[in-house]
Amino acid sequence: MGTATIRDVARQAKVSLKTVSRVINRESSVRDETRERVLRAIEQLDYRPDLSARSLRSAKAYAIGLVYDNPNPYYIIAVQQGALAACREMGFGLQIHPCDSRGPKLAEELRDLVHRSRLAGLVLAPPMSERMALLRELAAYNIPLVRVISAAEDPHDGFPCVFVDDRDAAYAITAYLIQLGHLRIGFLWGGKQHRSSPERYKGYEKALRDYGVPMSDELVLEGDYSFDDGFRGARRLLGLAEPPTAIFGSNDEIAAGVLAAARAAGLHVPYDLSVAGFEDSPFSRHSWPSLTTSRQRTELIAEHAARLLIAQIHGGDVENEGFSPELVVRGSTAPPRPKA
Amino acid sequence: MGTATIRDVARQAKVSLKTVSRVINRESSVRDETRERVLRAIEQLDYRPDLSARSLRSAKAYAIGLVYDNPNPYYIIAVQQGALAACREMGFGLQIHPCDSRGPKLAEELRDLVHRSRLAGLVLAPPMSERMALLRELAAYNIPLVRVISAAEDPHDGFPCVFVDDRDAAYAITAYLIQLGHLRIGFLWGGKQHRSSPERYKGYEKALRDYGVPMSDELVLEGDYSFDDGFRGARRLLGLAEPPTAIFGSNDEIAAGVLAAARAAGLHVPYDLSVAGFEDSPFSRHSWPSLTTSRQRTELIAEHAARLLIAQIHGGDVENEGFSPELVVRGSTAPPRPKA
DNA sequence: TCGCAAATTGACAACGTTGTCAGCCATGAC
DNA sequence: GTCATGGCTGACAACGTTGTCAATTTGCGA
């Protein structure tokens, strides 16, 4: 039993190829009775249209690409799930494309991908989504794209996007720590190549300013979105003459490193030190104590991005949209221990 | 600049379409000088063959599918990376397909996927890879497949596979705990729908028997590959009249739950309780203390599976291959505290 | 009943590639 | 000089689908 083609369906339903095509593509102007017959034939033969032939002929594409370079499995899986949900709903395929965001020929690489695999467009995850030069190159190639980016507001830069207000979320976490009574709050940066890093820092900074908490350069350390940098950073902060009573790590992995460093230093979290993360990864629930963090609806965001891309391809009007993360309070934060 | 087709290349190189095709496909019987000319034209026009047209015409496929239903992001990402590495090397595409392993129409779903997207075959991750009924259905549809499975030895059941010796690895972990001096070792099962679970249990059991350590039913609890079941299971074990001095969780997530339960019970790991996991996920490095576990080269295994599948499609002889995990000793295990 | 527009249907070409097969040319043996 | 050989090349059809456009049918008012 070779797989059935549109030809077999046409023969069985006693109509022309084109009519079957019309039924499949839900074009109007097919008589109900004819449509019924064709649908029955499709059912009987278990026919499915061939995507290759379809996109070859129609010059439309039935798949989109998901481009990322992010070492965080939780994030990636969530993005994939979200994008897939949108794709399945719209009858699209999804082609994943992990890549090196610092590769010199990234634009060409992506163009080849789109061309060879006949992709209708790309969803770009950070940090690719924030490289204006790359975006311009892709636009020059006429590749439709939607970005997932970190921004306090709609960037209005002409490239459609779904944006996440990292700044606001970081503000909320910092404000929460201040309200608990913390006055010396350490901040550990994420990777500089991610726009979310400065955004999160700005939120931290603004909260301190708004609440009149003195800033201190020694409490802010640069680093990467990694456990190791969290560990190292925390060790340095805890070694200060006047160490912080709370540390805000720019993501959960950093915060995990902070937890480890605190334990290594014999400190009891949250009583000797409060720790906050960012992301609400499963780790933040499974660590001990579980982490106060900021929940990003990554899956929803990615789904929305994919939906936006498909709408754009279909020629619809595309409205950027913002998502605000939400504070999640767990066991790793508490009021500071009163000074002896 | 519309993307170049084989036609443009032919014109530029002043040869026929077919000759260009020959050059692209590395067929012999093209004069060196002609080949040069064609290659130059390809270079100049930046031509890339269109995969849709190619697979449409040649009835060969240039992509494979990766089928999984596994809630563990670390595992999935590793599998994806491995499969992608093989695909890129061989000029194949990869289509990911997360699905519900208990879905009633899974075989039909996968057949449609293969058919619609013209996939050359499927790599099946656990637990799909262990459902004989599913395998037989797919075979009846003539879908080439390679499985990643848990087995102590080549299953010789006619379905090609890459197998991982979970039993042996669990034996190694248990033996290590026994050598440290533990005589009461708790065991927390993973999900029954995964064949790796009984395999790991068998390794545990065999080690106890070989070393003459008495078995005890109360030390063995069923559950799922989850943090919560690890937490609950550990709480029950620690509440026994004679609690275990070590607990072996069937994966790192379970072990993470055990760590949390131990901490909640005021126990100090590893001095009051040794904990071992399985998988060497990043969590096992980042927890405190870091976990003794078993390293599976998931990425390599998946890469090998994809390579095997592609070789099979090309008609090559296919040899199953086994991978042995490796014991990784970290801070969560120590000799038991001497009885007071 | 006829005429005409609208609704419905079908014939055919085309998308970009590769398989088939035939043709050309140089070579070397007779 | 003829003929077979083998290396190289090209013309053409075909893969399964949809776009174009023309043909046919239907519905309906006159």
Layout of helices and strands, plus pairs?
The structure is a homodimer of 340-residue chains.
Chain A lengths: L5 H8 L3 H8 L7 H14 L5 H8 L4 E6 L4 H18 L2 E6 L7 H11 L5 E3 L7 H9 L4 E6 L10 E4 L1 H15 L4 E4 L7 H15 L9 E2 L5 H12 L7 E4 L2 H13 L9 E3 L5 H5 L6 E3 L2 H16 L7 E3 L2 E3 L12
Parallel strand pairs in A: 1-2, 1-3, 3-4, 4-5, 5-11, 6-7, 6-8, 8-9
Antiparallel strand pairs in A: 10-12
The first copy, chain A, binds a DNA duplex (30 and 30 nucleotides) through helix 2 and helix 4.
Q: How many distinct folded domains of chain A?
A: 3
Per CATH, which architecture of the largest domain in chain A?
3-Layer(aba) Sandwich
The helix/strand order of chain A is HHHHEHEHEHEEHEHEHEHEHEHEE
Roughly how many Å is the radius of gyration of chain A? Answer: 25 Å
User: Can you tell me the residue ranges of chain A where pLDDT is under 50 for at least 5 consecutive residues?
Assistant: none
Helical residues, percent of chain A: 40-55%
Distance between the termini of chain A: 83 Å
Query: Tell me, what's the shape of chain A?
Result: elongated
Q: What's the main sheet of chain A like?
A: 6 strands, parallel
Strand order of the largest sheet of chain A: 2-1-3-4-5-11
The largest interface is:
A-B, 40 and 40 residues
Overall pLDDT level of chain A: 92
Output the structural class of chain A. Answer: alpha/beta
Q: State the total count of DSSP E strands of chain A.
A: 12
Strand content of chain A: 5-15%
